[in-house]
Structure formats: structure tokens, C-alpha cells
Amino acid sequence: CEMFLLVLLHILQSAVMTRSCPALCVCSSGLTEPRSVQCSDSGMSALPVNLPADSVKLRLEKTSISRVPRAAFYNLSELRFLWLTYNSITSVHPSSFVNLKALRELRLDGNLLTAFPWEGLRDMPRLQTLGLHNNRLSSLPAHAALFLPNITYLDLSSNRLTILPAELLDLWFPLPELQEGPIQRKILGLHDNPWLCDCQISMLTSLSMSLGSPVVLMDQLLMCRRSVGQSGLMLTQAELSRCMRPSVQPAATRVSSPLGSNVILRCDASGYPTPTLTWIKTSVVVNKTSFMQESPRVGVRWSIISLNGLSYKDAGEYRCQARNMAGISEAPIKLKVMGITRLSRVPKKKAQKMLSKSSTIERKPPRTPSTSSIKRRESPKITNAPPSLQNNTQEV
Predict the structure, then answer these.
(1) Which of 10, 116, 267, 343 is at a distance of 20 to 30 A from 359, taking alpha carbons?
(2) Mind listing the pLDDT tens digit for each residue in 313-323?
(3) What is the CATH number of domain 19-175+184-241?
(4) Residue spans per domain, the chain
(5) How far does CA 130 lie from the centroid of its chain?
(6) Which of 81, 72, 71 is nearest to 35 (CA)?
């Protein structure tokens, strides 16, 4: 009887599983291991519906699915692994991953994506693995760094990326004073992209090869397809290693000059590639016609700004900003304009009134001192002195 009941229970569970499993998909039983669903029919052109709510792993592979709509997996709150690999996906809605709070791994390898909604990673706070291998991504936006702190495995290989934002270097290689807790190592796949041979790639490769680096590259041999200012020329690692963040040195940090005079502000910068210089005053870029710059040799540049006939509006803080592919630096110069201070004349009527008031105060008879005061001030020898002498004693 017990055996019959077990067989009946198994049949009922199988029937429930069959009804909840979408067509063209295969679902695991979920009895001895977490429920998983796999769909790999080339005739499938849309995401399946009525997926088992307790699914932990979902694999949609080699289908004709072309888009992932809003809240596509909302009912799969227990999902931990989502593989959407080698389909025909061209777009992913920014809200596709709503309610996937438990997701640990997301793979979109082998699709036709030209862009990825990085802000959608906010809906997957536990995500650690993100695979975007073999797509058509042509840019990696700077704001992506805001949503990647928890990602420990990121595969961007075999795409069309050319530039690596500096914000990502700050995320992957934080300064010691900005590190919070122990360093968490990250695995990056950046190979097989037409990278521009610039200082960002140079810094990434050199830092990743340093001892105790927080970043491990899947393939450290990043091939540069283009170089700065030239086409098709490969820069060697030795040349790339020369990249240096610019440093700025002003001729003076404080300048004082009279009103109406002429003054020249100067700053010098060094770095590689040779930095360009820009003058900024109160968040406004100074017109290029107002200053000049020259580069006497590679890696060095100086600039001057000429101010003729100084007025008060010329006073303030000027910032000399140097920029190259390795970073940005700037130095402030404070300009003070000294004018002639003029004493303002008091109006004639007001002056007469003040003079009259002053005379009145002077003619006011002195207050009669008390007897005790007189006694303290009088000398015993002049107790019966005449009134004139007594008056002089009161003014002392």
C-alpha cells in the first residue's frame, strides 16, 4: 500500500511538472536538486511563459529570441543562474531583470547586442558573474562603473570596444586611502577588441601584472588595432609604458597688480603624451584667443594668458588645467587687482551739523563732582584755593 502511494505521488508530481513546463523546454524534477529549465529550440522566437516559479537555473540557448522585454523574469524570484547565450538578442530592456534579487550569474554571450543597460544591474544586487562575450558592443560608458562594484567576473572579450574609461580604472584599482575592507580580486576578459593604443590600456595591463593586483586578465596579451593619431600602427609595450599623468607648475600662485596695469600669467606642464593646456576662471573656460601655448619638446608644454588694462572683474582664481590620455591635473593662480582708495567727502550740511554738535558738547559745563571726589583729588595745602584752581583740578 505504501509503495502504491509513493508511485501515485510521483505520477502526480510528474503531471504537475509537465503542466508547468513550457513547450519546447525541458524542466528538471526539482525533487533531488534545484529546479532548472532549459530551452534550446531554434524555432522559439519569444521568451517562454509559465516558467516554474521555483526555478533556480534557466538556460535559453540557440533560439531565435531577439529581444528581452520589461520584467521578463519577474515571477522567478528564486532564480540564481540565467543563461541567454547564442541567441539573436539585439536589445535588452533596462527593466528586464526586475525582482531577480537572488541572481548570481548572468550570461548573454554570443548575441547581437550593440549596447547593454548597465543601470539594470541595480535590480540584481547579488550578481557576481556577467558574461557579454562575442557581441557587438562598441562602447563602454563611464557610468557603467557605478553598477559594477560587486561584479567579480566580467567578460567583454570579442566585442568592438576601443576605449576604456578612466572611471573603470578607478573602480578596479582604487587608491589605498579609498579602499574599504579587504581587496576583492576581479577577473576581466578584455581581449579580442580593437582597442585604441592609449594610456588607459597601458595602465591596465601594467597594473594587472603587478604583484598583488586586484585584477586578473583572462588574456594579458591585449592587441591594439589602432594607435593615437595613426591608423593601423601597433605601439609596443615599451612605448605605451611611457604614458605619464600630467603635472602642472605655475610661475606664481598669487599675483597682485595695480588697476589698469598689464599682467601675464604662466604655467608649465609635463606628461606623456604631451598634455594640452586650458585656462579656466570661475568654472568658465577662457577664450583660446586670450592665451597661447607652445611645446618646446615632446612631453613639455607651457602656456601664458595676457591680461591688459586690468579691471576689477579680472580679479579672481585662474586654473591652468593640463590634460592627456593618462589623466588631468590643474593648478590655481589667484589674481588680486589693487585700486586707489578714495576717501569719500562728508556732505557740507552734514559736516556743519556735526561741527555744531561738537561745539555744543565742548561748551557743556563740566559735571559738578561729588565732595568725596574733590577730597580725593585736592591736596591738603590748597583746600582754600581760589575757584580758578579748583576748576583745573576737576579736568585732570
Answers:
(1) 343
(2) 989 999 999 98
(3) 3.80.10.10
(4) 19-175+184-241, 245-338
(5) 22
(6) 81
Pick the closest to residue 236 from 223, 217, 246 (CA basis). Answer: 223
Q: How confident is the model at residue 27 (pLDDT cuts 50, 70, 90)?
A: very high
Is residue 388 over pLDDT 70? no
Read off the amino acid at residue 184: Q
99 within 8 A of 120, measured Cβ to Cβ: no
pLDDT tens-digit series, residues 155-169? 999 999 998 887 888
Extract the C-alpha cell encoding 89: 538578442
Can you give the three-state secondary structure of the chain, one letter per residue?
Answer: CHHHHHHHHHHHHHHHHHHHCCCCEEECCCCCCCCEEEECCCCCCCCCCCCCCCCCEEEECCCCCCEECCCCCCCCCCCCEEECCCCCCCEECCCCCCCCCCCCEEECCCCCCCCCCHHHHHHCCCCCEEECCCCCCCCCCHHHHHHCCCCCEEECCCCCCCCCCHHHHHHHCCCHHHCCCCCCCEEEECCCCCEEECHHHHHHHHHHCCCCCCEEECCCCCCEEEECCECCCCCCHHHHCCCEEEEEEECCCEEEEECCCCEEEEEEEEEECCCEEEEEECCEECCHHHEEEEEEECCEEEEEEEECCCCHHHCEEEEEEEEECCEEEEEEEEEEEECCCCCCCCCHHHHHHHHHHHHHHHHCCCCCCCHHHHHHHCCHHHCCCCHHHHHHHHHC
The whole-angstrom separation of Cα 314 and Cα 223 is 50
